[in-house]
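Summary of Year 1 activities. Much of the first year was spent building the evaluation harness for sequence design. The harness presents a backbone, in tokenized form, and records the residue chosen at every position. We chose the following record to illustrate the format because it has been used consistently in internal testing since the harness was completed.
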């Protein structure tokens, strides 16, 4: 006879086991839902302004981007889209790595690569948005924004 573990009586009151786990996964799940809704607004606003207003896709050139990023509103809009998109995507890929990478060492290296890509892309994208010069010195007048002298 083997001694199998006893099955609890289904009529007994549930006793929660003491856990030291945090609510990180719950917060990640909530973040994904909230950021997804905000990203929908940001992305469709971005697409509407870039593709539907004015001459549409034919108007997108250096001057168009320079004119948009001369406004703090559009800098913040694009910065939010970058940061939320990167955090949303990184959290999603982190979840996939946790689900499918079986070996702890492989999981660790995949996450290191993921977080490195996240930091590099977010930092470089933020620098581009805030250091972009819409009126570069020596640029041909037909390529720069109309407000450049």
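For this record, the design step produced the sequence shown next.
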């Amino acid at each position: 006879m083997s001694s199998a573990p006893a099955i609890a009586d289904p009529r007994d009151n549930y006793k929660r086991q003491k856990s030291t786990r945090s609510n990180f996964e719950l917060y990640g799940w909530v973040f994904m839902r909230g950021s997804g809704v905000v990203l929908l607004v940001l992305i469709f606003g971005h697409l509407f302004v870039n593709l539907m207003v004015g001459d549409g896709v034919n108007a997108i050139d250096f001057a168009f981007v320079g004119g948009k990023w001369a406004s703090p509103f559009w800098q913040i809009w694009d910065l939010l889209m970058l940061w939320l998109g990167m955090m949303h995507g990184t959290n999603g890929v982190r979840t996939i790595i946790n689900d499918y990478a079986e070996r702890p060492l492989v999981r660790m290296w995949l996450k290191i690569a993921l977080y490195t890509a996240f930091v590099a892309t977010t930092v470089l994208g933020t620098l581009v948005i805030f250091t972009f010069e819409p009126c570069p010195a020596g640029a041909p007048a037909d390529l720069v924004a109309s407000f450049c002298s």
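The chain has a mean pLDDT of 88. Quantitative recovery figures across the full test set are reported in Table 2.
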